[in-house]
C-alpha cells in the first residue's frame, strides 16, 4: 500500500476564550491508522485552563512557547497530585491512566 506523506492539517475539536484543541485522528488519516497513533495540539491563552481528562494511552506533551505554565497530574494509585512548572522546551511524559 502506498502512503500519502503530504502534510495534513489537524481538525479543530474545540475553540474558546481560554484556548483551543486540534486533533490528528487515526479515523481521519490512513497513515495514522496503519501506525495505530494519533496526535493533538492544545493551545492555551494566558491564564487559559485545560480541563482534566483521562489518558487512555501513553502520551508525550511538548511546550512550544511560554514561560509560566503549570500542569497537575494524578497518577493511578497515588494519593496526591503532582504539580510541575513548565516552560518552552519542556517535555511531559503522560503514562496511560493518568488524569
TrEMBL record:
Residues 3-99 form the Cupin type-1 domain. InterPro entries: Cupin_1, RmlC-like_jellyroll, RmlC_Cupin_sf, Seed_Storage-Functional. It comes from the Eukaryota. This is Cupin type-1 domain-containing protein. Signal peptide: none annotated. Pfam families: Cupin_1 (PF00190). The lineage of its organism: Eukaryota, Viridiplantae, Streptophyta, Embryophyta, Tracheophyta.
